[in-house]
Amino acid sequence: MTSDTTSRSSAPTATTAATATGDAVPVPPDAEAGAAPGPTPSGGRAGTIAPVVPSRAVLRPLGLDEVRITGGFWGRRQQVNGAATLAHIELWLEREGWLGNFDAAVEGRLPADRRGREFSDSEVYKLLEAMAWEIGRTRDEALEARFEAIVARVAAAQEPDGYLSTRFGRPGQAPRYSDLEWGHELYCFGHLVQAAVARARTRPADGDDALVTVARRAADHVCEVFGAGGIESVCGHPEIEPALVELYRVTGEERYLEQARLFLERRGHGVLEDVEFGRAYFQDDLPVRDATVLRGHAVRATYLSAGAVDLASETGDGDLLDAVSHQLDTTVARRTYLTGGMGSRHQDEAFGPDYVLPPDRAYSETCAGIGSVMLSWRLLLADGSPARGDLIERTLYNVVATSPSPEGTAFYYTNTLHQRELATVPEEDVASPRAASSLRAPWFGVSCCPTNVARTFASLAAYLATVDDDGLQLHQYAPAEIRTALPDGRAVAVDVVTDYPRTGEVRVRVAGVDTHRWTLTLRVPAWATGATLEVAGERRVVEPGAVRVTCDFAPGDEVVLGLPLEPRFVRADPRIDAVRGCVAVERGPEVLCVESVDLPGTAHVDVVRIDPGVAPQDRGDHVVARGALVDLAEHAWPYGDGIDREVADQGAAGTEIVLRPYHDWATRGPSTMRVWVPT
Amino acid sequence: MTSDTTSRSSAPTATTAATATGDAVPVPPDAEAGAAPGPTPSGGRAGTIAPVVPSRAVLRPLGLDEVRITGGFWGRRQQVNGAATLAHIELWLEREGWLGNFDAAVEGRLPADRRGREFSDSEVYKLLEAMAWEIGRTRDEALEARFEAIVARVAAAQEPDGYLSTRFGRPGQAPRYSDLEWGHELYCFGHLVQAAVARARTRPADGDDALVTVARRAADHVCEVFGAGGIESVCGHPEIEPALVELYRVTGEERYLEQARLFLERRGHGVLEDVEFGRAYFQDDLPVRDATVLRGHAVRATYLSAGAVDLASETGDGDLLDAVSHQLDTTVARRTYLTGGMGSRHQDEAFGPDYVLPPDRAYSETCAGIGSVMLSWRLLLADGSPARGDLIERTLYNVVATSPSPEGTAFYYTNTLHQRELATVPEEDVASPRAASSLRAPWFGVSCCPTNVARTFASLAAYLATVDDDGLQLHQYAPAEIRTALPDGRAVAVDVVTDYPRTGEVRVRVAGVDTHRWTLTLRVPAWATGATLEVAGERRVVEPGAVRVTCDFAPGDEVVLGLPLEPRFVRADPRIDAVRGCVAVERGPEVLCVESVDLPGTAHVDVVRIDPGVAPQDRGDHVVARGALVDLAEHAWPYGDGIDREVADQGAAGTEIVLRPYHDWATRGPSTMRVWVPT
Q1: Cα A257 to the center of its chain, rounded Å
Q2: Which of residues 402-461 of A touch B (CB under 8 A)?
């Protein structure tokens, strides 16, 4: 094994030299290798078993057959997802009658017997998508049978012209497309198509597939009705856009790409009726090319942006890509919670104005977190920036992983950063209001989040690594086996051995049998000041960004990234008024929180103060900070000249304040909780 | 003139001695005079021209014929209300077709021609109420004719059994009472009854009145349908409760009181269907006697509580009175904005948890402010506590007065305490979404606030003063003529001469011709530390609370209250996280704010910092504080270790920061604005 690392600030050496880049500034990892900037045909590969497979991109995603998570934090999540969550969702879809709606359609019992909200069909499709990825991951035959049984019920309800909805269009129901603002018909088609895309990429056998056939017929119908000369409008909830691009990628059918383009270009010109929340709610206020920041309903905004990146990647539309990239950057700088959560408004599940990020009214919907990951991942494939991987990691650990219970059978819909009241435990057999629950609930009247978590976890391995002409890039760290090939056919095989994020060592061990030269690129998170890289027994400090190691890698060679996991204080931009005078504590990629179950007696988290002058300490399964529990007097009128000095006058802090990962909060019962703690 | 003032902390002297009480603790002003605590029959008087006339109360309200506002801050508001707002509302009710709905009902054009939301009838009734008070105040004959014309249209739509709604019950419409949760039928009846109560108390002539007849028929119908043995439920929006008690007060008809009691006792037992926001939304989660704090929809909560106080006053139900009194006290201590605004949630227009009071997401609906005044006024009549007058004053100046434009033709529906984005000017001819407008709008899709402001301003004189057996109490300070009599028939006449709140001197001059002994009680606001009282040329400092002067008052005698109007800093209870590290500035009863129109160039209010070490100074029409305009850097990720120190490191503050009354904000065009400013 030969290796050499030089700082990126030095003059680049020949491509035969290994290079460690330390810039936080987005730089495509292959820029040094002389590749032309921008997408290259090497980006995509037919047959990749992954959620997003662009034909052209800077980085090529790897499929579930190329990356396998073998354990650890995410391995456990995947295991629970497959073993419990999928069945839990199926049970609730039956219990609530949302699956039965398809049977009712076939049996002529609509609209009388219809159950659930206007978009309930989409939950069935998202379960199918999750199942498809899980089948692709595990080849579970029992699951395959369950999958096929559901597909058969869905397929039976499709109308001769391809239209498929249990909510519209039948006698006694509202006509098709009579309520594009709120009806969610195209949104449902989008999820149907996404499920079919997952199926097409993972199906066990060749030949026609029932779900793919259904979805193609539906997509053809959509192109017919909404194509040139058809209805010149869009769906109030984006989703069909990325779905159609993905279906184009699977089928090569240009009309799907064209239809996605039409939907994207139409939106923003006020084609939908105005609504109480304004047209920004569904991003119909401004063309996607003209916007400077994400706004409106956060799930809608991220899904639409994901579709825009998909379109830009396929069409080589650099302007569109730049526009969306800039929008996400602005959103991250001004409208994103510490957890990565997006959406500060309960009223319309929407982004608020810049810097309005109250922790106690954080909406931070689980699905918006997933939408953010979808968007960041697409941009990462398109531009290679390590900052995308940072946000994905933050969001996965602190939004997506927060939603499901350890058992995988209860979920947060919203993810507040400050719980002020002790929650009541939701009833096991009753669907909860979506946002009111302050404990994880088994199901919701609007139950988009459980199925979204399920499909994300089942396909999670696809978000770990990519390849380009030069080599392999690791974006997320989990114990994994990676067996892939570079575009020129050279095999690359590594095992990732790590207990991250419990410990900070990430050991990348070259597997396989061949020795040849390639570049291993590792993301060094922005928080990881003092990270180290050990190559061929030599350890050096590397800066946050992307670090590259080019070697003649031989089986058994190891590259070891050391990420510093000392807990650290963070503060917020002064414009985020809601957390002025507070600190939060992070450890590695995890945001921590204080919970009242860790306080003496019945103390409320409101009484906790932290001394930011004493560094927090790691104690294994928790972190402690120095602080105090203060007495808070009740005032008849809570405003006055010296009212805030009462606390300051209580003197020095000497209590150990326990902090634990936010994603685990409320797993020990009802608790008050806060991420941001006053100093 | 003889007078003597002693501190309340001294032993009380004989009732022949004048007493200045300085306690902030609620004490009925007549407690010292030996009257039994609790309501007395002297509280109410038939024929009083006022919105709330309890049969029994500690204090007797005065009518519009007894108190006349002669100018000043509120005089101008009343003048504009009568000259512009009433006609503006009538115009919009015609334009939007909400008045036309009654014609459509008569002409058999419903439901086809119905316009507006399910509760649009109530806006017509609130306009009638406002007109009735205005007629009572001014005896304007042209207004009387307009009033009668509207009443005729309403009356024509009433059905033979007394039911009256343009939204329910006719062929093709939903059946009567088929949606008690959201239908607002009884809410509309409540406002109809309130309008009739105003009419009954102010009508120019004796004999049957058309509106009173309509309302009594409607009320009889309600008692029929919802009385014992009838529908055992309530309306999703309280309002019928106080209305029925008031109608009982006007008519003496016991069944109305009994029906109000039934509605109040039924609520809180889950008689309504659950809704997404939970039953707390319409206070059906807990019986009104068992609640400890106001919760749910803030207008619903305050209206219901007002009805509960009305019921308690009529039935002598001390437990119920105590329960509501305690709920308001807790709400004021934990769930009320500095402005007096109530409701921190846009989603459900509701109270949030304790201490969740983000200024930038303040909902603080104008109608909730009015509901708070309604509630506080009823409690003030019932318990005489000066703290009630404090909250009324705060809310009138900083919520209710903030809503209308100086011209009286545009309104705030919500009253945020922090405007972060420059607003666009609402179109003149288009109804605005209710909460989205960040500038005053001429009308709203849900337009409850303009009519509520109109009826409040038209009847505002009734909130200034009361009498009891001992004398006269002044609760609010405005230039006024008061001509009344004590329960024993002795005439009491005073003129209030003041430019308050521009200046702090309130001169109470005895008018009339008789000399006799009575007690003048003046409210000294809680903020008025250092207030002075001048009696017979002698000035002394009095403490906040209620100050009493007992004299043989002769015509020409003067008592002069001096209220200190030096601007002052206030801070918030440390549990109100959203404004930690900030100060607000108040001047007298007015909350001030910073507006970007007073900053150089295009500066945003976010850059303003105030130095709390230098007292703010009065400059006549504005106040200045010492402070700084800081540079705020943009960060790709707005969280980090030292991110907040950038501002602190910018050193000393030397800029004059201009602050003006919050109620005037945005009257000079779009502006960013904040009440709470970081130090």
Answers
A1: 24
A2: 418, 420-421, 433-436, 445
Q: Exposed, middle or buried: residue A111 (CB in 10 Å: 0-12, 13-18, 19+)? A: middle
* CA-based nearest residue in chain A for residue B642: A571
The partner residue sitting opposite B347, judged by closest CB among A347, A630, A678, is: A347
CA distance A187 to A177: 12
Q: Do B641 and A358 touch (CB under 8 A)?
A: no
Among B187-201, B435-449, B606-620, the range scoring the smallest mean pLDDT is B435-449
What's the pTM value of the predicted model, to 2 decimals?
A: 0.90
Residues A438-456: what's their mean pLDDT? Answer: 92
**What separation, in Å, do the N-terminal and C-terminal C-alpha atoms of chain B show?**
51
* Domains of chain A by residue range: 69-461, 568-678
CB atoms B637 and A526 under 8 Å: yes
On whether any CB of chain A is under 8 Å from the CB of B11, the answer is no
Token reading at B656: 């004059």
Q: How crowded is residue A192: how many other Cβ atoms within 10 Å of its Cβ?
A: 29
Copy the structure tokens of residue A567.
Answer: 């807990």
How many degrees, rounded to 5, is the angle at CA A112 between CA A106 and CA A115?
A: 85
DSSP classification of residue B342 = B
**So what's the pLDDT on residue B37?**
36
Distance CA A133, CA A165 (A): 24
Residues 316-375 of chain A whose Cβ lies under 8 A from any Cβ of chain B: 329, 332-334, 336, 338, 345-347, 352-356, 358-361
Beta pairing class for A471-474 and A516-524: parallel
β-partners of residue B586 are B568, B591
**Residue B523 and residue B538: Cα distance in Å, rounded?**
19
Determine which of B421, B432, B580 to mutate to test the interface with A (most A C-beta atoms within 10 Å): B580
Report the alpha-carbon distance of residue A331 to residue A337 in Å, rounded. 10
Q: Which residue of B has its CA nearest to A607?
A: B575
- Quote the ipTM score: 0.88
Residues B299, B282: Cα–Cα separation, whole Å:
9
What residues in A contact B526, CB-CB < 8 Å?
637
Distance between CA atoms of residues B117 and B119, nearest Å: 5
- Fold classification of A69-461 is Glycosyltransferase (1.50.10)
A14, A19, A9: which is closest to A550 by C-alpha? Answer: A19
The radius of gyration computed from the CA coordinates of chain B, to the nearest angstrom, equals 25
Q: Which residue has the tokens 């960060």?
A: B635
Interface with A, mutate which of B344, B360, B392, B419 (most A CBs under 10 A): B360
> Smallest Cβ distance to B634: which of A333, A569, A571?
A333
- Please give the single-letter amino acid code of residue B667: T
A501 upstream amide cis, omega within 30 of 0: yes
> Smallest Cα–Cα separation from A676: which of A334, A417, A352?
A417
The helix-helix angle for A366-383 and A298-315 (nearest 10°) equals 20
* Structure-token match 């001059």, residue found: B509
Percent of chain A that is helix, strand, coil (3-state, to 5): 35, 20, 45
Sequential DSSP letters for B644-663: THHHHTT----EEEEEEEGG
- Flag whether residue A273 sits within 8 Å of chain B, measured between CB atoms: no
Flag whether pLDDT at B216 surpasses 80. yes
User: If you count DSSP H runs as helices and E runs as strands, how many of each does chain A have, helices first?
Assistant: 15, 23
Instruction: State the Cα–Cα distance between residues B264 and B266, nearest whole angstrom.
Output: 6
pLDDT (tens digit per residue) in A118-166? 999 999 999 999 999 999 999 999 999 999 999 999 999 999 999 999 9
B574 touches A at CB < 8 Å: yes
Is there a contact between A544 and A524 (Cβ–Cβ < 8 Å)? Answer: yes
